[in-house]
Amino acid sequence: MKKSPMNTSYYDRARETRDWSERKKDLNTRFLQTLRHAHHRSSAYREMYDAAGIDLSKIQGLEDIENLPLLRMTDLVERQRRVFPFGGFETLDPNELRRIYVNPGLLFQPGGEFESQDTSWAHALCGAGFKAGDRIINTFNYHLWPFARVMEESAQHIGAAVIPAGSGNTMMQVKIMQMLEVNGFLGTPSFLTTLVQRAEAMGLDLRKDIFLETALVSAEMLPESLRARLQEKLDMTVRQAYGTVFLGCIGFECQAMTGLHVPDSICLEIVDPGTGRHVPAGSVGEIVATSFSRSYPMIRMATGDLSCLSDETCPCGRTGPLLKKIIGRMDQATKVKGVFIHPWQADEVMARYREVFKYQIVITRKNHMDIMTLIVEVKEDIAETTSLQRRMEREIEEMLGVRGSVQIVPRGTLPDRHRKIEDQRSWD
Ligand SMILES: [Zn+2]
Predict the structure, then answer these.
(1) Which of 109, 156, 236, 249 could cross-link 243 (Cys pair, CB 3.0–4.6 Å)?
(2) Contact 139/219 with Cβ under 8 angstroms?
(3) Strand (E) or helix (H) holding 360
């Protein structure tokens, strides 16, 4: 039986819908506990805060959090290379260590009984529509890194059964889904797409032979066009969640899809990446989060991902912050004429034009001046391009805050795999 579109199940209803002041008080208490614990137990935080001249007695609560330095992935890497294996960020009793996870880039992470105390991914599973009794195929990679295991434990928290499939052997996975009447999927959007293609190639009827009702996808961007296609083909619900291995779940979609609900296992900030200060309400900035882990706390960890907070309230009743979708990465941004431009800004303008097939922003430099050109490939040849070109130039300037010229080119001009922003400037 398929679910109704407004299923609003919670993992912990009271906690997820409590009022804002109560939530804030609780976050404040846990933040201060984590900070003191980290400063007491972790050599890395002690060193970082001493170097930044932080007087811990002056950090009285979340209102002072901006005074702490950001923790960047590069800091974590650099410290782990110096102090094996965890870089001195660990705060656990060494006797509690049960696993050592190895994340891409040989980044180590402690594991043990304490992990299962974080139920934020269980919140995400319920938000997506999973429930007790579901049969879920978990196709996240079980090899070396923690995520698949964390998702499996979270599914168990909600009373579902997991098939620990990992990401190999797609034909076998399709057969497992068919024979066990699997109704839930965990994995990346691209792997779900691969399984669907495989099932079609095997001659299966997606609506009769595959029983999927709910998918929670993560670890990759989910284009809306792909979501629509998967939901239509399989007659199922596809929801996404966002997080990192070191911070856990940062946001998840509920049935209403108003944005990403931020669980109270972390404290979220949207900051100006240059200064680390909070951006004005509703502005785009870098996502920074603090986890309350008792073993490996991440305090003000900068994710490199860009988003902004929504001022909407969600009809599902969850009261925590609501993050709009992730709109890009810091490292894809480029500065042109002193202004940061991001691929998502141009995406937003280009999405208004049905004529556009794809585009590329090319940045060059002449006489010490930046020149921005948008090469726009159209679906079909257009006889008169001047007015289209002018309109695009005007909208691009409005959205990006930088003037650029638009060049309309026939389909097939841009290579298949191309960067959204091609920076051709040389700085010697
Ligand atoms: Zn909601």
Answers:
(1) 249
(2) no
(3) strand 356-366
Q: How many angstroms is it from 119 CA to the middle of ligand 1?
A: 17
Highest mean pLDDT (candidates 104-118, 234-248, 413-427) = 234-248
Q: Confidence band (pLDDT; 50, 70, 90) for 427? A: low
Task: Specify whether the CB–CB gap between 261 and 240 falls below 8 A.
Answer: no
Confirm if 288 and 234 have CB atoms less than 8 A apart. no
At residue 329, does pLDDT exceed 80? no
- Structure tokens belonging to residue 113: 């009984």
Q: Give the pLDDT score at 48.
A: 96
Strand order in the sheet with 237-244: 161-164, 135-138, 184-187, 214-217, 237-244, 248-252, 260-261, 322-323
Contact 248, 124 (CB under 8 A): no
* Window from 247-251, 351-355, 367-371 with minimum mean pLDDT: 367-371
Q: Taking Cα atoms as reference points, which of 94, 97, 88 lies closest to residue 44?
A: 88
CB count in 10 Å sphere of residue 97: 16
pLDDT digits (tens, 9 = 90+) for 41-97: 999 999 999 999 999 999 999 999 999 999 998 899 899 999 999 999 999 888 889
Q: How far is the CA of 8 from the centre of ligand 1 (A)?
A: 8
**8 Å CB contact between 310 and 327:** no
Q: How far, in Å, from the CA of 154 to the mean position of ligand 1?
A: 19
CB 91, CB 294: distance < 8 Å: yes
| Dist. CA 149 → ligand 1 center (Å) | 26
The pLDDT score that the predictor gives to residue 428 is 57
Distance 210 CA to ligand 1 centre (A): 28
The per-residue pLDDT for range 109-121, each reduced to its tens digit, is 998 877 777 899 9
- Residues in the 5 Å CB sphere of ion ligand 1: 254, 256, 314, 316, 318
- 25 C-alpha vs ligand 1 centroid, how far in Å? 22
| Interatomic CA distance for residues 236 and 255, integer angstroms | 12
What distance in Å separates the CA atoms of residue 127 and residue 224, rounded to the nearest whole number? 18
- Tell how far the Cα of 320 is from the centroid of ligand 1, in angstroms: 10
